[in-house]
């Protein structure tokens, strides 16, 4: 009796399965050690709040420690790059946001990572709308009054100063949207640190600024700045007395900051599926959900497919806004 040797094409057909075997085994036992969750902003900021609340519950559900790693700088790009270049094993994850994922690619020609090719969306966690705020001692108490001021001081070669939390951020392009819709010229004043921008608004060094509802709610309720309008489709539960831009007849001023969970491209599908299930479960935890809502966030928790669809729709939208503004970060 003779033993037939496998033909070459039979051997070749086995290679993909053999190559995937280690990944499949890894996915079944993941996580076997602490998981690192990176965020591109310092402690105490909106992204950090989301990361710590979600990370704490995620650790409980995964039965493994989730270590928060604040890699602040460059509008979230440092953290995004670090995860994009990490091994695709599920142990280095990112809380990414609209600035470093959707705005940065068209705004920076030398971006050291490619979100579309090097990162995969796991779940959109929360969103935070923006609110137009002004100093409490400003001479305009309503948006109509602000618009009169802006048109009087932002035409004929003059510009109105609006603070931003950095060039290329949502608030930066929100300022451009506002100027176009309101018919005046704007001079974005870019601050490197969130605290510096807030200080400038409170001190009356700028005319106005777009801040996230999550950041602005406490400052507004504390009487440190005045809110004129929000970018949300409906009034914010944490700022129910503040009208939306749509109510004021400017529906095109419609943008928000989203925060999503990302993993390096190539991470095993089984790991991504488990991550999605546990991230959604973390957001549905009553205590976690309440804390996020009280902080000014809209809690979502989307599927992997819904997250990828969101990312595909956001990319061209922000690319068009960047192009229209003429902004280039490098």
From TrEMBL:
Keywords: Signal
UniProt keyword Signal present: yes
Signal peptide: 1-27
Family: Belongs to the UPF0065 (bug) family.
Name this polypeptide is given: Tripartite tricarboxylate transporter substrate-binding protein
Lineage: Bacteria, Pseudomonadati, Pseudomonadota, Betaproteobacteria, Burkholderiales
